[in-house]
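Researcher: We plan to redesign the surface later, but first we want a full-length starting point. Tokens attached.
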């Protein structure tokens, strides 16, 4: 099992600002720290931000992204598409490029039995996957699934 890193933040960082705390002034904000796992949406601007479960907006399939030795892979957890098996790797060989703040790799399209180049970018709770095939491209959005 991969190790998890933790980020320590003051708990007021979770609010939308001073207005969310009522009439409190900036110098009155509490300084009690909390720990947030690196898979939290608060840490999406790191190589760990892609970890977790993502749901496709087109079909409703859910993919869980995990890391193994610096390479990220997404396996199907559930899908409404007939003939597509759970456990199938569909996000393949993802590597984080810190300078460009995105992941590059491939996506496997099981219904076409083909792999395509793809760029992945996490922005808040949305994973944008730009798939390129020749001179054409398509962007597919995935939404972070929060565990119950």
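Model: Full-length starting sequence:
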């Amino acid at each position: 099992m991969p190790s998890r890193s933790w980020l320590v933040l003051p708990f007021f960082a979770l609010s939308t600002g001073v207005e969310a705390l009522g009439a409190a002034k900036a110098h009155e904000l509490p300084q009690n720290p909390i720990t947030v796992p690196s898979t939290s949406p608060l840490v999406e601007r790191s190589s760990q931000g892609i970890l977790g479960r993502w749901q496709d907006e087109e079909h409703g399939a859910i993919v869980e992204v995990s890391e193994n030795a610096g390479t990220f892979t997404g396996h199907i957890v559930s899908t409404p598409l007939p003939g597509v098996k759970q456990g199938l790797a569909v996000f393949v060989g993802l590597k984080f490029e810190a300078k460009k703040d995105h992941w590059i790799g491939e996506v496997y399209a099981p219904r076409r039995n083909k792999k395509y180049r793809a760029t992945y970018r996490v922005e808040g709770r949305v994973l944008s996957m730009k798939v390129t095939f020749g001179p054409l491209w398509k962007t597919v959005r995935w939404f972070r699934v929060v565990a119950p």
